[in-house]
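can u do me a favor
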């Protein structure tokens, strides 16, 4: 029986900005009790105040997800305060924009620790509590880049692929045990969050999201829907979903599209100067925002997500039809 969002206890990592912040606020508006984690304590305090203004309960819990001890303590703090955990959202992430040759080993390791190990630690920390309840949901926020990599983000893409693989294995284990625990993978398209301002850039300019771009509320809405009615995978935004379908049809053809005129490199370089600041080894300054600097062309609604992404049966039918149609086009091109 689904637990109404108003009755849920939710833990969200990466809650000081971007998707995590917007998701925490949305849970708060629905009356949930929310444990919000990130490294930026002032930002968490501000989010908690806003959640409480909307009738929810909030507990700021500063934590660096790259540290297992802190993540384990986060789970214990949530249970000590609210008695249980209904939904755990693994969302924290950092990024760097550079070629593989330009990346330092310490930078690669840091992205791996935050993005991949951070989510693995979250799953491990939540499991004992959810198993005792024989219920609950783990939601892992990956990316459309979990299914198709792009240049300049090799390590970031590797972590998202890793999240997808770990999620699938854990889901099978828990289903085999009939644990009552659901595991959901959320795969957003490009989202207009401060990730791009906070990323480490070696491009000489501020990086930018690959179009089409969606507002954080689109991803937050999908996460809330998955928390109330869990499903296997949730694709957020038709742009990212189209790329994953193209990858299944013909990776080589997609390579050609991405490389044509340097498209995929060009689309990640903005015309804004980089400020040489990032959140790699410490929190970003300020109190945090849900949205980033690329809202001029972003979409606040995704019809694809609303009509198909949140409805698995419709999604399967639509994806099947798209695959069949696209495969026929590829065959014609080949002839």
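np, heres the sequence
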């Amino acid at each position: 029986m689904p637990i109404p969002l108003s009755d849920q206890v939710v833990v969200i990592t990466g809650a000081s900005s971007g998707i995590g912040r917007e998701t925490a606020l949305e849970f708060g508006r629905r009356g949930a009790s929310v444990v919000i984690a990130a490294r930026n304590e002032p930002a968490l305090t501000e989010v908690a105040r806003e959640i409480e203004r909307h009738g929810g309960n909030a507990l700021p819990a500063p934590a660096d997800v790259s540290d297992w001890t802190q993540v384990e303590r986060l789970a214990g703090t949530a249970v000590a305060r609210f008695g249980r955990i209904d939904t755990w959202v693994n969302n924290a992430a950092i990024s760097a924009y550079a070629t593989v040759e330009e990346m330092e080993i310490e930078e690669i390791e840091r992205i791996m620790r935050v993005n991949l190990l951070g989510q693995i630690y979250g799953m491990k920390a939540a499991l004992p509590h959810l198993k005792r309840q024989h219920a609950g949901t783990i939601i892992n926020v990956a990316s459309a880049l979990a299914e198709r990599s792009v240049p300049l983000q090799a390590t970031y893409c590797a972590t998202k692929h890793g999240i997808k693989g770990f999620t699938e294995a854990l889901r099978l284990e828990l289903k085999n045990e009939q644990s009552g625990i659901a595991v959901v993978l959320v795969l957003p398209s490009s989202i207009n969050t401060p990730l791009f301002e906070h990323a480490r850039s070696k491009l000489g300019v501020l990086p930018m999201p690959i179009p089409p771009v969606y507002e954080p509320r689109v991803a937050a809405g999908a996460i809330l829907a998955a928390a109330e009615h869990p499903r296997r995978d949730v694709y957020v935004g038709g742009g990212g979903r189209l790329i994953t379908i193209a990858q299944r049809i013909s990776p080589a053809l997609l390579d050609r599209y991405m490389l044509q005129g340097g498209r995929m490199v060009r689309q990640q370089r903005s015309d804004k100067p980089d400020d040489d600041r990032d959140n790699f080894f410490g929190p970003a300054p300020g109190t945090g925002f849900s949205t980033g600097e690329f809202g001029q062309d972003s979409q606040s609604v995704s019809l694809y997500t609303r009509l198909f992404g949140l409805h698995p049966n419709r999604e399967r039918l639509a994806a099947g039809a798209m695959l069949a149609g696209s495969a026929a086009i590829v065959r014609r091109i080949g002839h």
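The first helix runs from residue 18 to 29. hope that helps!!
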